[in-house]
Amino acid sequence: MSKNKMTFEESMERLEQIVRSMERGEVALEESLKLFQEGTELVKNCSKLLEEAQLQIQKVSVGADGNPVMEEFADDSL
């Protein structure tokens, strides 16, 4: 499966596998470099998916009439 088609959860699971493999120290240098590159791509994919999810988040508040009102999420920390 292409990294761009992986879900956030699938990407995170693969990242965990890569980290465990590299932490054991049983991987040759060349393979470690390939795993590092794959991990970098997975991190980029996860970041992209999180950004897309953040854009979809909406804030629910109560309007003057007492009914729920949907507002676009605004990150006040920026």
Provide a short characterization of the protein structure.
The chain is an alpha+beta fold and 78 residues long. The chain has helices at residues 8-24, 29-56; strands at 58-62, 68-72.
Overall description:
This protein is α+β, with helices and mostly antiparallel strands. It has one domain: Orthogonal Bundle (Helix Hairpins). The chain is 58% helix and 13% strand. It is built from 2 helices and 2 strands. Strands 1-2 form a two-stranded antiparallel ribbon. Helix 1 (8-24) runs antiparallel to helix 2.
Write the layout of secondary structure elements.
Elements lengths: L7 H17 L4 H28 L1 E5 L5 E5 L6
Antiparallel strand pairs: 1-2
Helix pairs in contact: 1-2
Fraction in helix: 55-70%
Broad CATH class = Mainly Alpha
What's the total count of β strands? 2
User: Strand order across the biggest sheet?
Assistant: 1-2
What is the rounded distance between the termini?
A: 35 Å
Global geometry:
rod-shaped
Range of strand content? 5-15%
Number of structurally distinct domains: 1
Number of DSSP helices? Answer: 2
Q: From the 3D coordinates, which CATH architecture would you assign? A: Orthogonal Bundle
Detail the poorly predicted runs: none
Reading the helices and strands in chain order gives HHEE
Radius of gyration: 19 Å
Under CATH, the topology is which?
Helix Hairpins
Regarding quaternary structure, what we see is single chain
Whole-number mean pLDDT: 85
